[in-house]
Amino acid sequence: MSSLSQSTGPRRMATSVTLMLCLAAAVAGAIEVWTPETGQVDLNAPQDSAEARFREAVEMIASGDPDSGLARLEELLAEYPNAEWAESAGYLTRLEPFTAVLQARSLQEQMRLRHAAALLAADQSMSGVAQLRKLLAEHPGAEWAERAHYLIGVGLFGAGRYAKAFEQWEAFLSQYPESRMRHTVCEMQLRAAGRRAGEDLEKGLALYDCLIAGASSEEFTVRCQKEKADASLRAGEYLRASDEYLTLIDRHPDSPWAPYAWYKIAQCHLRTAEWVGRGGEYLEQARRTFRDFAANYPEHQLAGKAREELAEVRAMQAARFKNIAEYYLGPGRRPSSALPYLRYIQSELADTPLAEWAGEKMKETLSGERVPVRGHYPELGLPGVSVREQEEPEAE
Length: 396
Description:
Elements: H1 3-7, H2 9-26, H3 50-62, H4 66-79, H5 86-93, H6 97-121, H7 125-138, H8 145-158, H9 162-175, H10 182-199, H11 201-214, H12 218-234, H13 238-251, H14 258-276, H15 280-296, H16 303-328, H17 339-348, H18 355-368
Helix pairs in contact: 2-8, 3-4, 3-6, 4-5, 6-7, 7-8, 8-9, 9-10, 10-11, 10-12, 11-12, 12-13, 13-14, 14-15, 15-16, 16-17, 17-18
């Protein structure tokens, strides 16, 4: 890894890996441009290197001096018979001068394309983009133009210009609707939308909507909807995220992502409750959704986490009701008003550590009442606590 990659932090390193994968996909066609497997172009190679001399010879031929260029190639082949470019050089020397000129020009274009791709891989994204645009302006109908257009998007993505990259790939799909790279381009658009949402949620969500509107399959539509909801959740927009997950379930109830969406809805309720601070209603919704998820999808890979988070929610509920009960048990207040909360902890949250505490407090409260508590506990209008009949305590 270069010192440049080491100095730009984990995010830039991840981007470099992404670029290498994208470049490998981009050059998988008939014209090899650059791949990690064939080796990087050395941008700092000495100008008198064998490869530089090979380039000069090709330029001679392409510029209309085939005799001098071909003679130079024969000298280089004698000196470097096993060089990486030796096969191309040998091919040119076997051609008639006029044909060699045409092939040299094509090879020259390929070398420039290869160099531009190497710039992208070397984190010189905008320099690579400039080279690609110049090359396309000179040769708009070249057979490698499709890959060059795609690589411009890769370069913009690498430079952090995610909206521009998305637009570039959108234009690519319009220009090459039957491209074999369509799947790769859509995947990269999905990544660009996610990165843009990390910068500006509203603008990123608009990109997701664009992908959903133009999706060519239900599977990709569901993935876009899932990623859109995930982006909202990451941004702390819990209510919006919950709505987006519900949209996925409503429109695609049989999708493999539907259970995931239910689990995430439960997380949205929990995060909302934490954000509100006293979100009893959201805690109860989280409890029910985690409970139902674990019951309906017991073999799902998230079932274990759902059960753990369900236990966490129940403990949070018990702590919340304990605080309310302690308020009513304080000096000068009405201890009997604490009984609905204590009974709820003891009966409905019996598996939490506070259940035993609640039972002891109930006994203390009931034994301290001058008049035995009968009938219904008063309804306090707080979510999560149901009114229950309380029998008269047994005589000691």
